[in-house]
Amino acid sequence: MRIEDLYRIFTDYPVISTDSRKVREGAIFFALKGENFNGNAFAQEALGKGCSYSVIDDDSFDKGNRYILVNDVLETLQELARIHRTNLNIPVLAITGSNGKTTTKELTDRVLGRKYKVFATEGNLNNHIGVPLSVLGIAGKTEIAIIEIGANHIGEVEKLCNIARPTHGLVTNIGLAHLEGFGSPGNVLKAKSELYDFLEDTGGVIFYNDKNYQLAEMLDHRKVRIIPYMDDQISGYPYDDIENTLFLNLILRFQNNEYPVRTKLAGNYNFENIMAAARIGVYFDIDPMEIVKAVEAYQPANNRSQIIHTERNTLLLDAYNANPTSMDAAIKDFVESRGRDVTLILGDMLELGTDAEREHEKLIHNLEKMEIENVILVGSVFSRINKNPAYMTFGNVGELIGWLISSPLKNRDILIKGSRKIELEKIINNL
């Protein structure tokens, strides 16, 4: 089937499903393949559960006029998203970077939502499948769209920009993430700059943290409109909370007026995420008081910068993802706010490739220099390289839970930080 004909069907049935277990009535099912599954095998099941059509790329599963046979399901999904994007005459803000993408996206969504009908990427659907699904989810009444873009190899941001075609963009920062795919820190920088390349070529607008020298260097001599977070229209600074609650508090300055903001976010590293959302709000004419209300109302979820008070301890749960840059920032901020008598439960940092052991050794060395005594390490990498007998090490979360049951922690301030696959959130009920 021609992609134009498929798009006409999509306009009648504008819902896409890629999981036969979670279909919606009338949706179009795209039979994507994975390492351990073939979506073609679930096309019939999806139709039986109420899907209008199933898009397949294996003719042996073609069983009638409700099956749409294409050469490649994934490429068809991406091309369909490109066509849909060309029919949307709205600002599209793309957000990428090593850390803080999702939090910045969520904050910006809340800020812009005070005035506009906003579509924002759900969760972290930010890869070669998630971005086209997000673009196809933008409805006709949407006034501004926010698309999160992730990447683990060079060329991926460029490809996703050609699908989402952003008019505005933001790189949160450049850190040591996904080194297994990128190969080197230099390649991480090159990959993130692909968003800048696209916006420069298309006459877009770039928001950036002018306090970040890497981003400033990347933007030097580019012929593109750039808007810093800290300019003559907006600035700000964090301040310590006299109640010692762990939450980030700040002053936002809009021209000559100052506004105190008490957030539900932990960690001063979230300050730049808030400043990005606030500056974007100013650009799109959101009233300063509405920006303040949006930031104060934002409640983090999904294991990101969450403060949890249990019967025995106070937890800072930040275990959705971890890399050397975000781990270092989280530890330093936690220790600065709570002192050295804290407990750190740290999980392996994944996707670091050949740098994995070196980066984990560097982390342990930094903990020793900071004289942090109460450290619990979880994961196979930490188990291999930890040589400090004072730091307890567990191969997996199950082993740690067993120890916590027999040796409960009490009256502690505990940072929980690690990569998602370590599943550190499972220990909460034992703290």
Describe this structure in words.
By secondary structure, the chain is an alpha/beta fold. The chain folds into three domains: 3-72, Udp-n-acetylmuramoylalanyl-d-glutamate--2,6- Diaminopimelate Ligase, Chain: A, domain 1 (3-Layer(aba) Sandwich), CATH 3.40.1390; 88-297, Mur-like, catalytic domain (UDP-N-acetylmuramoyl-L-alanine:D-glutamate ligase, 3-Layer(aba) Sandwich), CATH 3.40.1190.10; 306-430, Protein-Tyrosine Phosphatase, Chain A (Alpha-Beta Complex), CATH 3.90.190. It is 36% helix and 20% strand. The protein has helices at 3-12, 43-48, 73-86, 101-112, 130-136, 156-164, 179-182, 185-202, 213-219, 271-283, 288-297, 324-338, 356-369, 380-385, 397-406; strands at residues 16-17, 28-30, 53-56, 67-69, 92-96, 118-120, 144-148, 168-171, 205-208, 225-228, 234-239, 247-254, 257-266, 306-309, 314-318, 343-347, 374-378, 392-394, 413-417. It has a six-stranded parallel β-sheet, sandwiched between helices. A six-stranded mixed β-sheet has the order 14-15-19-16-17-18. A four-stranded parallel β-sheet has the order 1-2-3-4. A hairpin with a 7-residue loop joins strand 11 and strand 12. Helix 1 (3-12) packs across helix 3 (73-86), helix 3 (73-86) crosses helix 5 and helix 4 (101-112) packs across helix 11. The longest helix is centred in the middle third of the chain and has 18 residues, at 185-202. It starts with a helix and ends in a 14-residue tail after the last strand. The relative contact order is 0.09. The mean pLDDT is 91.
